[in-house]
Amino acid sequence: xxxxxxxxxKKRFSFRDLGKMFGGGSSNVRQFGILFSLIAxxxxxxILTDGLTLSSGNLINLVSQYAYILILAIGMVMVIIAGHIxxxxxxxxxxxxxxxxxxxxxxxxxxxLGIVLGLVxxxxxxxxxxxxxxxxxxxxxxVTLAGMLIFRGGNQLIGNANTIPVPQGFTExxxxxxxxxxxxxxxxxxxLLLGLIIALAVIFMEFRARRVQRTxxxxxxxxxxxxxxxxxxxxxxxxxxxxxxGGRVGTSFPISGIILGVLVLVYSFVTRNTIFGRHIYSxxxxxxxxxxxxxxxxxxxxxxMMNMSTLAALAGMIFVARSQASGPQDGIxxxxxxxxxVFIGGAAVAGGIGTVxxxxxxxxxxxxxxxxxxxxxxxxxxxQIIKGLVLLVAVGLDVWNKSQGRPSIIGFLTKNRRxxxxxxxxxxxxxxxGAGEAPSEDPQGLVPTAGTPDTSRPRx
Length: 460
What we know:
The protein is an all-alpha fold and 460 residues long. It has 2 domains: 321 residues, ABC transporter involved in vitamin B12 uptake, BtuC (Orthogonal Bundle); 77 residues, no CATH class. Helices cover 67% and strands 1% of the residues. It has 18 helices and 2 strands. Strands 1-2 form a two-stranded antiparallel sheet.
């Protein structure tokens, strides 16, 4: 046998390599499509508002005002991935807020214990609703619709339809900012330090992921893709850090934003890198097949509902802390904003698809849209109409793209390129996705096809 003397073909530029910049999967690419939409909306309002959208004060207020909705979106995406819906989160948040405010005012409960009390009450409410869903078998839509009525009434009963103020220490979790420390640089030093830490973490995680891929024998994306990705992210992080650190004296990055960031990191890890997270995807994708594989679907349903109410309790306390009082109108419509954020962020209505990061991006789309329209003086009635149309168009385009076999813009652009590549490559005994077929919609690779035995997923 003679060795081939031909030099290896030089790797050409491919849009598929750009796809790897966004995680490689069609679900991840679709979420970056939403990210590009977010950037376009920011640029549009930056022009229309003469630079007010990206001013330091407006960005600080934006995070402070919408942190509680984004926290709700974290829990809601897990509920929707599991194939359920939760309509009670706004009422649960309001109920916990009035309970905690009453306990601190009338019982003189210290505010740290008040936070613990709120989380416990939220967990108990979630356990109550989760029991009905998981073990009695009542659909989550009905259970949480009942919960929306029960806990809204409970809020008004306990508070007697009055506003109850909260102590100053408690307000820090919703209205506090990173303190001023160190030399006078004209910026908030802790905010700059936070941005530097995040940038270094992004660089470390990207190249650590490349090393892990090589160790496991998989082919990582070309080095230039990782470099472009890291440079873009570091520039964005640095720019945002300077904006947040350059606000008026006494303001900087909000404490509620810190809480949100920690939750995003924790829940992203849980959903992507733990058995529990994989089981959520498998139950939402094909509950029967998941049970045959040993997944305890009832326990997953119970824990997902319990987690949602706990996060709703935290969101309610952050809102009360920012408002410095709990009132009877708290929480109205919050569940709709959280659900909209999840679906705009790429989650599937039928369950089994979605990510925490995508939901945060979807929530930011709604937040920036709402904020920009307010800066332009658009009335609240028209704001609601526009938000509803955005939600309908986003989900409608997603459904239409999947029905046409085009789950993402990049997938559409590279369909012909994939076909040409498949024609040039030697045939393999292993099956591959054809040029006209849609790639898998499951970012975890865990959702079995209906009617097909699930043999690829490791047993739990």
